[in-house]
Amino acid sequence: MAPVGGTAVQDHVALAEIELCGELIIAASAAEDRLSLESIDEVLRVAEERGAG
Asked: Most buried of 1, 33, 43, 47 (most Cβ within 10 A)?
């Protein structure tokens, strides 16, 4: 039974992963052919993460 107080637990990492998966699905469905590795990296913002790290 769910608690009555609305005490939802949010996993921010899981939510971010779900968002990125959604963006990949959208990009793949809009592409005419398979996504290149470079396109996938762009959708996942890999370069931004490397620059920040």
From this structure: 43
